Amino acid sequence: MGKMGKVRVIEINEDVNAANDRMAADIRRRMTDQGTLFLNVMSSPGSGKTTTLIALIEALKDRYRIGVMDVDIRSSLDAQRVADATGVRSIQIHNGGLCHIDADMTARALAQYGTEDLDILFLENIGNLVCPAEFDTGAHRNIMLLSVPEGHDKPLKYPLMFRVSDLVIINKMDTLDYFDFDLSLAEEYIHRLNPGAVILPLSARTSQGMDALADWVMGEADRLRVL
Ligand SMILES: Nc1nc2c(ncn2[C@@H]2O[C@H](COP(=O)(O)OP(=O)(O)OP(=O)(O)O)[C@@H](O)[C@H]2O)c(=O)[nH]1
Ligand SMILES: [Mg+2]
Question: How confident is the model at residue 2 (pLDDT cuts 50, 70, 90)?
């Protein structure tokens, strides 16, 4: 029998997360001080992040100065779509093929973007239900979209994403007749993981729920002002 060697275990993951959390807290403090509400939007690919942001910005842009940062592995399609549709300032971040954006990347993007003049900044994260949930970006609030075609079981399969989200939008409600999506079951699963989560049914296509979404964002903007 061979001798058992001593094995040293180094918890790199914890160090990386602690450093990320510190940097994220810095970003959040800076954004609070300058009065910019910073919202991180996450979902699977194609759940409707860009479509929803365009409709939401249309509803809010007369009252607030709004900006958008879009993260993608390569393309610049989404930033262009938002800019073309709404006229607000938008930039595309290429993150070099990673499946997430962390606080360091966010800080560098914010420095280039210049956000001091904004009331609300949206970050459209990479389409992915796993990686983005693991990194605090420094946003004040996390918003996620679960769309009806994805199924009501997603909270059970991707719990972290639902745990870290303050607002869970159930999007594509106009397609409810075509899928076996049980809304009350989805709500039950989400609240079991995250009792404080606000759940909001929406259709970015028909605008059902869009007023409630705009109200939620305005409420957060008001709250930031009194901090
Ligand atoms: N029926 C219906 N389709 C929608 C709705 N919202 C978005 N879509 C469609 O879903 C598709 C994907 O929407 P996007 O807004 O590009 O989704 P995304 O989450 O930004 O996608 P990625 O950035 O690629 O991850 C598009 O064809 C949209 O028109 C909705 O409420 N109802
Ligand atoms: Mg998009």
Answer: low
pLDDT in tens, 6-33: 888 777 777 778 999 999 999 999 999 9
Residue found under tokens 């957060």: 220
Nearest Cα neighbor of 59 from 88, 38, 80 is: 88
Q: Which residues line ligand 1 (CB under 6 A)?
A: 43, 45-51, 78, 127, 171-172, 174-175, 203-205
Digit-coded pLDDT (tens) for 119-169: 999 999 999 999 999 999 999 999 999 999 999 999 999 999 999 999 999
CA distance 78 to 82: 6
Q: Looking at residue 6, what is its pLDDT?
A: 81
**Quick one: angle between helices 77-86 and 49-60, nearest 10?**
30
How far apart are alpha carbons 171 and 181 in whole angstroms?
11
Cα(87)–Cα(196) distance, integer angstroms: 34
Q: Taking a C-beta distance cutoff of 8 angstroms, is the pair 138, 31 a contact?
A: yes
For 94, left (φ over 0), alpha (ψ -120 to 50), or beta?
Answer: beta
The residue written with tokens 């970015």 in the block is 204
Q: Hey, which of 47, 51, 52, 154 would you mutate to test ligand 1's pocket, going by the most ligand atoms within 8 Å of its Cβ?
A: 51
- Residues 192 and 109: their CA atoms lie apart, in Å, by 35
Taken in order of first residue, the domains within the chain and their CATH numbers are 12-225 (3.40.50.300)
Neighbours of 222 (CB within 10 A): 10
